[in-house]
Amino acid sequence: MDQDGENHQFLTNGNFLVLTPRFSPNTQEITYLAYYNNEPRVYIFNLLTGEQEMLGSFPGMTFAPRFSPDGSSIIMSYSNNGVTDIYTMNIKNQNVKRITNSPSIDTSPSFSPDGKQIVFNSDRGGTQQLYVMDEKGRGVKRISFGKGRYATPVWSPKGDLISFTKMYKGLFYVGVMKPDGSGERLLAKGYLVEGPTWAPNGRVLMYFKQNRPKNKKTGSVNLYKIDVAGFKELKIITPADASDPAWSPLIP
Amino acid sequence: MFNKFILVVGALFFLASCETATQDAVKGTAGAGKASATAKAGKASIFGSAKETPADKLIAVGDRVLFDYDSSELSSEAKLTLDKQSRFLRVNSDLTFTIEGHCDERGTREYNLALGEKRATAVRDYLVIEGISPDRIRVISYGKEKPAVVGSNDMAWSKNRRAVTTID
User: What is the ipTM of this complex?
Assistant: First the structure.
């Protein structure tokens, strides 16, 4: 759909669970998690041809995919035997590289725009926190030190900020911090607020929000956007409940 | 101007699939309650009557274990349930099955997928120690996408943090 919620188009038919779609840098492809044949795997959807392709063949679950800034590879999580680590896979030659190697849950990786660093979240220190490392997995450094748990970090297209989801005292927040962890600012809060995505100009964030239902029902899920200064939060009107937005790069 | 940006929205449909899952799961919970009430029937519930399908019997034995928040550790209560499950699976040696790991909604989507996998794997590892062949067991995680009970309260959350054994 367009950034204002108009021109909505369904890409998949709804027979299978499909989660966390993300654009390639040239906006021709989308990578996502799908449960085709009840096997959770990362796929690539080509918007021009409509073809879907499973990425590699792993004996466990692959998920949390994102394109590298040059579009040549996918960075994602791979879970097997109770351990979740981060891998990259070259799309053309299917070459797989292991980036993290820890017994903890390492997930939601996101490249810096120059492709030289990766931010991710891990529970290696006890609870979920944000960490930065180089593109080969070296020099892992924790960057989140506020109260609560931090998750789903996304590097801004300008490189100056990292947006994240934070969980603290029963509430969810979307916020931003500098790549060294300083200057944390919380922009949105709610019962469940998750999955920030950057506008191409690096100055607006979109995310989804679910209100806490009063009775035994599920609260409605909607998309919102806010400027990084945190001045104005806007609801995006979608034809049905919506979650996991992904903002495309500028179409050339 | 409008074609300068395109947005893709995913997971529009998962709510629909949740509802089916909820109905199944509520049935399962009711069965589990009955099972604990007739726990003393012991072996009788394992072999059951001729009318019961293996899936019914597994629910009577106890098809699920529950977890604490952000934990994949098996409680002593969970281990008791898995002891009964492993007896059932030994008797029904022709069956293969899938362990589904689930989480409550108070975590991020991707982290919960990993946590669900960890929970299902903890159950699989326990059953393997009990002598069930790993070749018969498949593990899958649904994270927080398929809650057993809809609601945002302690009761719903505790029932949603689960690993459910299902017959293939």
Answer: 0.92
